[in-house]
Amino acid sequence: MNVRRRLIPTAALAATVALAATALTACSGTAGAAGAEDGKLHVMASFYPMQFLAERIGKDHVKVDTLTKPGVEPHDLEITPKQTAQLGEADVVLYLKTLQPAVDKAVAQSGVKNIVDAATLTQLEVHGTSGHDEHAAAGEEGHAEGDGHSHGEAGEDPHVWLDPVKYAEIAKGVGAALEKSDPDHAADYKKNTAGLVAELGALDTEFKDGLKNTASKTFITTHSAFGYLAERYGLDQEGISGVDPESEPSPARMKELQTLSKQDNVSTVFFETLASDKTAKTLAADTGLKTDVLDPLEGITDTSQGADYFGVMRANLKNLQKALGSK
User: Fold this and answer.
1) pTM, whole model, 2 decimals?
2) What is the 3-state secondary structure (H, E, C) of the chain?
3) How does the average pLDDT of the chain come out, rounded?
């Protein structure tokens, strides 16, 4: 897999985390006022992975709301006036810049001072599918649009939560921010953060061991959200439609994937729970492949293969092992 990185020095990352926490110190005197009704710190999360961090680290000391309701595809979210008002009333806003343009705009216009952008708490990279990058490197024009990502500055991929190691880095930054915003409960936030980071470390080990020996290293998915996961565990992601899981791929891209599936011993085309499986089933039918779910964890629904982040990630691991031929 070809990966182009925009690396951030470790010292700069540490400084960024410190700044994120410091930016919230102004909130420390307002925790009581903000929690006038229930005594809790009010955190507004942009979508599920941010909500999960706030709930696991804050536990009983926080009241967490989310802008993206269950079953809503985060990329397509439109912010209502009511949500904008709720955003402005939050003590802390936790979001991931570039993932949801509507949220970025609402946060910028909200006037909220205590904002944590998870994208500043780890290193963002630019990911493309192998085929996409090879065409780009060769200077070829007209390759299927959307085979890779086009997020944020320099096309950075925001799906960092699918890498347990990077998600743990974000958790540390969020924990530090909550400690500063609510110093009375800082010890609990620190303890909860350490516990969550340890769980994510164990999950990382499960993925490393579970994907160490597989018959194939290539997987095909409708949504190119798994670049960080693929890089972490030595796999190659091939996206059908790029960042938009419901966009139509070009005939050339479909033909390319048919050829690739035979060359790389691919057995399965993955689709996700929040988007149509039409394209995945079309490719599978044309190539004689199976279909299965690989959940990008952008939201938890009744159909999600797991009750929370860890449950869905372990379901993803099981499905990857089955598709790749784990030995």
Assistant:
1) 0.82
2) CCEEECCCCHHHHHHHHHHHHHHCHHHCCCHHHHCCCCCCEEEEECCHHHHHHHHHHHHHHEEEEECCCCCCCHHHCCCCHHHHHHHHHCCEEEECCCCCHHHHHHHHHHCCCCEEEHHHCCCCEEEECHHHHHHHHCCCCCCCCCCECCCCHHHCECCHHHCHHHHHHHHHHHHHHHHHHCHHHHHHHHHHHHHHHHHHHHHHHHHHHHCCCECCCEEEECCCCCHHHHHHCCCEEEECCCCCCCCCCCHHHHHHHHHHHHHCCCCEEEECCCCCCHHHHHHHHHHCCEEEECCCCCCCCCCCCCCCHHHHHHHHHHHHHHHHCEC
3) 81
